[in-house]
């Protein structure tokens, strides 16, 4: 395990939070939110959680894997693993009423 100075730890945490803050408006636009649960800046393990309307969204796992994980690991070289989850404490009905959820294409019959 890498030993970091307090300044290096603070710098990594600040960069992580700035990147999450950059991503949050996209999630919030659909009635959800993205929050940092914990981060071990020495081992590179980051845990995030999707909340709000994300709890009932069918593509939450895609958002975590294809979006959040990809962005964090590609832009922060020290991030080795992203653990993601969805806040399941919220009632599914309440979650669905918070936003539009993920984009689901509507096909018209000809």
Shape: elongated
Radius of gyration: 16 Å
CATH level-1 class: Alpha Beta
Number of helices: 3
Q: Helicity, in percent?
A: 40-55%
Q: Uncertain segments of ≥5 residues (pLDDT<50)?
A: 101-107
CATH second-level architecture: 2-Layer Sandwich
> What is the CATH superfamily?
Fe-S cluster assembly (FSCA)
The separation of the N and C termini measures 60 Å
Strand order of the largest sheet: 1-2-3
Q: Give the tally of β-strands.
A: 3
Q: Could you name the CATH topology?
A: GMP Synthetase, Chain A, domain 3
Structural class, by secondary structure, is: alpha+beta
In round numbers, the mean pLDDT is 82
* H and E order: HEEHEH
Outline the structure in words.
The protein has 110 residues and is of the alpha+beta class. The protein has one domain (6-96): 2-Layer Sandwich (GMP Synthetase, Chain A, domain 3), CATH 3.30.300.130. The protein contains three helices and three strands, in the order αββαβα. It has helices at residues 6-28, 60-75, 92-96; strands at residues 32-40, 45-52, 81-86. A three-stranded mixed β-sheet has the order 1-2-3. The protein is elongated and about 45 Å long. 25% of the residues are buried. Residues 101-107 have low confidence and may be disordered.
